[in-house]
Amino acid sequence: MESGFLDLESLEVNQRFDFLEGKWTYQFSGGRGETEYRKADNGTAIHETLTSAWLGEQEFSAVSLFFFDEEAQLWRQRWLDTLGNQLDGSGGIMDSDVSELPVMQLEFEHQGSTFRHLWYDIREDRFETDLLISSDGGKTFALVRRMGYERVDGES
After folding, report:
1. Rounded to whole angstroms, how far apart are CA atoms 122 and 119?
2. What residue spans define the domains of the chain?
């Protein structure tokens, strides 16, 4: 494995999103923001609070909860945002062409499309995400947004 990257496969399956814990800034084409992830429910879930200058002027915020579903052996995420979206996703670790290393993936169905969210190139102080969309039932995906995250100094 490449030096400095987090080896997700070496972690217990219910700890694979623990790297998120802390405060982060992120940037993407047309926007930037801050997000904070904190363990919840005695460490069995991760609560996200996100703020952003969404695509320029429109203010945007969201909250989500990540948790591991023991019975299904899947990660799940419940997402609620100020645009009125209420999304339920599920997934886990997978191979992908965006990175030589395995990535974390969650998929969501929304308004007739399939969305795939990938977390990859994960280091202690930064990681990348891609949001992809499919309108053909998951046969092909197109990039909606690539985001780069950096940990806020001194937070973890």
Report:
1. 7
2. 31-151
* Contact present, 144 and 134 (Cβ < 8 Å): no
What's the pTM?
0.84
pLDDT surpasses 90 at 135: yes
DSSP state of 43: T
Band the pLDDT of 1: cuts 50, 70, 90: very low
Contact by Cβ (8 Å): 144, 131: yes
The confidence score (pLDDT) of residue 98 equals: 65
DSSP letters for 74-106: EEEEEEEETTS-EEEEEEEEE--TT-SS-EEEE
CB 142 within 8 A of CB 133: yes
